[in-house]
Structure formats: C-alpha cells, structure tokens
Design goal:
Length: about 240
C-alpha cells in the first residue's frame, strides 16, 4: 500500500512548526501504525535526516503515552483504541494521513508529535492518591464493597492519562481525566477519608495549570480510547459541591 504522510515537524516549544510530506511505499496492512512510523524513521536515519519524534512505551494500550492526532481524531479514526493499537488495515491505498500532536495550551510541544503532559502529573500529585500504610496484601474480605461500586470504580480507574480528552475538547478541558481519577476513589470506602481534600486540591490544580471548563459537548467521551463516561464529571461536580 502507498500512503502520503503529512506529519507535523517542530524542533521545540518555541519554534513555529509545519507539516512535512513523506511518501511511504510497501506499507503492509498487517503493520501497526507505530511500526509504520518506525519504518519511516529507519529510512530517515539512513538518509541522515532527523527522525520524527513520537512518544510510546507499552504499545499495549495501557501506558497512555502514544497520543497523537491522526486524520482529525485523537488516537486515529477508529473508536476506543489507542494509537499503538491502530492497524494499517484501517487505511486505504493512496490515502493521505495527517499526523499532529495534541493541541492544547497546558500540553506544550516538546518536539514534533511529543507534548509535555506534566500538567496531568501535577493534578495527580495534588490529590490522586489514598494515604494508607503499605505492606502485605490485606485480606480481600476485610472491607466489603458492593459489586456495582467496584465495577464502576474499575471503569473509572482504567483511564490511562493519555490526554485525548483534552485534545478533543474545544475548551482544552481536563474534566474527564480529573473526574475519572476522583471517581475511582469516591466510589470506594478507602477513598472517602480524604474525599473533601482530594476534590478541592485536584480541581484547584486543574484550573491553576490552565485547563478549560466543560461545556458538555461530549467530545472527550467520544474520543476517549478507554470509553470513560461523562457520568464521572457529574460525580466530580457532586463531590465538589459536597466539599464546600
Ligand atoms: S479520560 Fe480517556 S482520553 Fe482522557 S486521559 Fe483518561 S483515557 Fe485518556
Ligand atoms: S504506547 Fe502505551 S498506550 Fe500506546
């Protein structure tokens, strides 16, 4: 398969950046999208050119580092998967593929397709934890939790912190991410002790680092690779009202 790639190249946060065009021949439909970028980078290195910088780690959909815009969608046009799970069989012979970094003020471009997501880390550090003594694994039945609550908490906890929700939102709102991180504790007894401090601190940090507000367009939920639900935002708002 032949493809035309239009890839955003930018030296650093201060430089302007622009799209560069790359022709790809012999792209196998069996390849993963990131393998296709690996093949391009191999060629660029052999030609003594600067390879395209992109973030990745697990390539298994769990670390959240492989975020990029592909043909106008965070993580590409196929719903509910990360870029590293995107296969080249979803592309057509002769297609042009536009590849860009997340575009949001709190996520400045480091280089090419890599953005700095430490704004998320700062929110997590503000309150995304519970304070317990660690040690041996506790007896599972010491604290009984309703099945429905543990299922809902797990559904929130699968957020991988990729930032696609922010990139998809016209307000660069981080509410889906923050609400998932708050919900995973709010639903469990272990999270209730610090619930007030947690929601106050995380929401304050979210505002401080520059994320926008939610205007209920639902773009975040539609583009989230882990299908985190908007109901998490409602829960976060309820937690916030209770805390004041
Ligand atoms: S809510 Fe979804 S899109 Fe946002 S950081 Fe979590 S997994 Fe990524
Ligand atoms: S590389 Fe880890 S989620 Fe894609």
């Amino acid at each position: 398969m032949k493809l035309t790639l239009k890839i955003w190249r930018q030296k650093n946060a201060k430089s302007k950046g622009n799209f560069e065009t790359y022709q790809m021949d012999n792209v196998s439909p069996e390849m993963a999208f990131l393998e296709m970028l690996d093949a391009l980078n191999k060629r660029l290195v052999e030609e003594d050119k600067d390879p395209v910088a992109f973030d990745h780690d697990c390539r298994e959909g769990i670390c959240g580092s492989c975020g990029m815009y592909i043909n106008g969608h965070p993580h590409g046009p196929i719903p509910a998967i990360t870029t590293c799970h995107l296969s080249m069989r979803f592309f057509k012979e002769g297609q042009t593929v536009w590849i860009e970094p997340w575009r949001a003020k709190p996520f400045p471009v480091i280089k090419d397709l890599i953005v700095d997501r430490t704004a998320f880390d700062k929110i997590q550090i503000a309150g995304g934890f519970i304070s317990v003594n660690t040690g041996a694994a506790p007896e599972a039945n010491n604290i009984l939790i309703r099945k429905k609550d543990s299922d809902n908490a797990f559904d929130s906890a699968i957020c991988i912190g990729c930032g696609a929700c922010v990139a998809a939102c016209k307000n660069a709102s981080a509410m889906l991410f923050v609400s998932a991180k708050i919900s995973q504790f709010a639903l469990l007894p272990q999270g209730k002790v610090e619930a007030i401090d947690r929601v106050r601190a995380m929401v304050a940090k979210m505002d401080e680092v520059g994320f926008g507000n939610c205007s209920n367009t639902g773009a975040c939920e539609a583009e989230c690779p882990k299908q985190i639900k908007l109901t998490n935002i409602s829960r976060m708002n309820r937690e916030y009202f209770k805390a004041y």
